[in-house]
Amino acid sequence: MPTTPQWRHYHELRPDELAVLRDENPVAFWPLGLLEHHGWHLPVGFDGIKAERLCIRIAERTGGGILPVMWWGTGGGHDAFLWTHYQPPEAVAAMLTTTVEQLIAFDFRVIVLMAGHYPWQGILDDCLPAIQNAHKDITLLWGTEASIGGDAVPLPGDHAAKEETSYGLALFPELVDMDALMPGRNEAAAWPAGRMPPEGERHPGVVFEAHDPLFAQFGEDARQGSAERGEAGLSKLEDYLAGVIREAIKA
Question: How big is the CA angle at 57 (ends 49 and 93), to the nearest 5 degrees?
Answer without folding.
Answer: 50
